[in-house]
TrEMBL record:
Heterotrimer of A, B and C subunits. It comes from the Bacteria. Belongs to the amidase family. GatA subfamily. It comes from Pyrinomonas methylaliphatogenes. Residues 24-467 form the Amidase domain. The active site is at 79 (charge relay system), 154 (charge relay system), 178 (acyl-ester intermediate). It catalyses: L-glutamyl-tRNA(Gln) + L-glutamine + ATP + H2O = L-glutaminyl-tRNA(Gln) + L-glutamate + ADP + phosphate + H(+). Allows the formation of correctly charged Gln-tRNA(Gln) through the transamidation of misacylated Glu-tRNA(Gln) in organisms which lack glutaminyl-tRNA synthetase. The reaction takes place in the presence of glutamine and ATP through an activated gamma-phospho-Glu-tRNA(Gln). HAMAP family: GatA. This is Glutamyl-tRNA(Gln) amidotransferase subunit A.
């Protein structure tokens, strides 16, 4: 029997009742991570010693404490741009190298308090900049469904680890679709919550007004349970909101009755793979059968979202990455004779090509004479995009779109065409610009047997509706196929 056939609560109950030990569950996850990493390159660090010690500690605590946490004994993987005390946090970059933070991110503290066991750090595009996970200084991650294809990015390592059944849950980060897009390409659930719902304390910054920690899982119910654990106000992060965190799992129901689902037909046009279009349109009809009312909505400024996003994101990246200079931590070029030369050589040798490209773009749009023409204009368009969603949600409770314009593409297919690569985020970055929650849900397979995902988005703080819709769909139309590269533990 595979324990990942159980949802998180069932697995937790098996551990608490001593049907299986936390040590056994964690050991199986560690074994799978080590065995499959040669094929997938999904992990940059596997913490066997720490994870086994933590699992043994949890097993010994059974019966000594009045209660156990909601994630008691559950193995979890963490994207390598989220700080875990004592573990490597390289952000997939040479410039940070073997940096080991002396503290846990708030999300990690809350996972530990709930009983989770962190088994390692996952590979990612350098500083979360990419849509294919080919920009990592430590090599690309491969898609478990076809190892010649990308898993999506930038959180491709976490997505691959869940899709390959190494762990039931993983954390990633989402700045323009970096949880939802790899979730779609790997055939799993990927949630980006409302901006401010999960603390960014301990998340290495890329675009501070866009970044958000997100959750990968095999089931909507599992994602819901983890969200309830890590969401909420954090005094370490002034951008978190003091908004009540519900028991998301308790609100799940097996239908969509009473939900008005909006369809922006303009987003189903040019550039969308025909197989993706058919799969998402099939999902729309499935929701009609589940009791949802289907309504037409308009997002007139969506066509500007890619341009708007890549101005704002690169501007913020240029500012955030200025701190990596070889002085305080991380990599330093040793052959420089003068301070300015050391700065230049460190950044030249330490950053990869995509990060350099985005720093240069961001510096340009913030420079004198161009700030008003580009950055200020992009912020004005961002306001219009928010207003579009506000008007749309007056007519509906959630909106459905494709997650990615295509299924997973081949490794190397888009590396020589940055604009073509950037268009992989065409359906997802608009959600980050508006600050609203979004989720990707598997909705079928292509003729080549590759997963296809649909995206659902809702109002600020209304993750409950997204999780309910995801749960209802997966019950009615489960993706029963598994990747050829998958752990059977």
């Amino acid at each position: 029997m595979s324990y990942l056939d159980c949802d998180l609560e069932e697995l937790r109950q098996k551990i608490v009742s001593r049907e299986v030990s936390a040590r056994e569950i964690v050991a199986r996850a560690l074994d799978a991570a080590e065995k499959l990493n040669e094929t997938l390159n999904a992990f940059l660090a596997i913490d066997r010693r720490g994870a086994e010690a933590r699992a043994a500690e949890l097993d010994q605590s059974l019966g000594k404490l009045p209660a156990t946490g909601p994630l008691f004994g559950i193995p979890i993987a963490i994207k390598d741009n989220i700080c875990v005390r004592g573990l490597q946090t390289s952000c997939g970059s040479r410039i940070l190298g073997d940096y080991h933070p002396p503290y846990d991110a708030t999300a990690i503290e809350r996972l530990r308090a709930a009983g989770a066991v962190i088994i390692g750090k996952t590979n990612c595009d350098e500083f979360a900049m990419g849509s294919s996970n080919e920009n990592s200084a430590y090599g690309p991650v491969r898609n478990p469904w076809d190892i010649e294809r990308v898993p999506g990015g930038s959180s491709g390592g976490s997505a691959a680890a869940v899709a390959a059944r190494i762990v039931p849950i993983a954390l990633g980060s989402d700045t323009g679709g970096s949880v939802r897009q790899p979730a779609a390409l790997c055939g799993i659930i990927g949630l980006k919550p409302t901006y401010g719902r999960i603390s960014r304390y301990g998340l290495v910054a890329f675009g501070s007004s866009l970044d958000q920690i997100g959750i990968f899982g095999l089931r909507a119910r599992d994602v819901a349970k983890v969200l309830s654990v890590i969401a909420g106000r954090d005094p370490h992060d002034a951008t978190t909101a003091d908004v009540a965190v519900p028991d998301y799992a308790a609100q799940l129901v097996p239908d969509a009755k009473g939900v008005r689902l909006g369809v922006p037909r303009a987003l189903f046009g040019e550039g969308l793979d025909p197989e993706v279009r058919r799969a998402v349109e099939g999902a729309i009809e499935a929701y009609r059968d589940l009791g949802a009312e289907i309504v037409e909505v308009e997002l007139p400024h969506a066509k500007y979202s890619i341009a708007c996003y890549y101005i704002i994101a690169t501007a913020e990246a240029s500012s955030n990455l200025a701190r990596y200079d070889g002085v305080r931590y991380g990599f330093r070029a040793e052959e420089a004779d003068e301070l300015i030369e050391m700065y230049r050589r460190t950044r030249d040798q330490g950053f990869g090509a995509e990060v350099k490209r985005r720093i240069m773009l961001g510096t340009f749009v913030l420079s004198s004479g161009y700030y008003e023409a580009y950055y200020r204009k992009a912020q004005q368009v961002r306001t219009l995009i928010r207003e579009d969603f506000h008007r749309a949600f007056a007519r509906c409770d959630a909106i459905i779109t494709p997650t990615s314009p295509t299924p997973a593409f081949l490794l190397g297919e888009k590396t020589d065409d940055p604009l073509k690569m950037y268009l992989s985020d065409v359906y997802t970055c608009i959600v980050n610009l508006a600050g609203i929650p979004g989720i990707s849900v598997p909705c079928g397979l292509s003729s080549s047997g590759l997963p296809i995902g649909m995206q659902l988005v809702s109002r600020h703080w209304d993750e409950s509706t997204l999780l309910r819709l995801a749960h209802a769909y997966e019950l009615a139309h489960p993706l029963t196929a598994r990747p050829p590269v998958a752990a059977n533990w």
